[in-house]
Amino acid sequence: MPFVKGKSGNPGGRPKVVSEVQAFAREYSEEAISALSDIIRDKKAPPAARCVAANSILDRGYGRPSQTINQGLVDKPVDQMTDEELMARLRALKDCQGETSADVEWENKLAVVNGAEQSNKKKEQLQ
Fold this sequence. Notes:
This protein has helices at 16-27, 29-41, 47-62, 83-97, 101-126. It is mostly helical. It has 2 domains: 16-62, no CATH class; 78-126. Helix 2 (29-41) crosses helix 3 (47-62) and helix 4 runs antiparallel to helix 5 (101-126).
């Protein structure tokens, strides 16, 4: 639904409840930082808890670190890749996403195609 020119898409503004919750949470900021620092200093606290507490304090003090985005640029178009290059790309994708039954199916189909191509090449060589 497009917005009408000159009319707000959110005429009521930000919900009041959100600002009330933020104000309530800010009342406990000092106490929260104190609790986090106690966890960091507690040698009996699990290492994971100490790490989370330390990261929470650093995030609030310095902001979260910027994240880089790897676009995974390909040197050449897919239709110009060799079978080996395509298989390497499929394996890399599976490593990132986990193997699915569709991945296995595509690999099997590609193996059948490769086998047929090799068979055809052998037949051509024999003739």
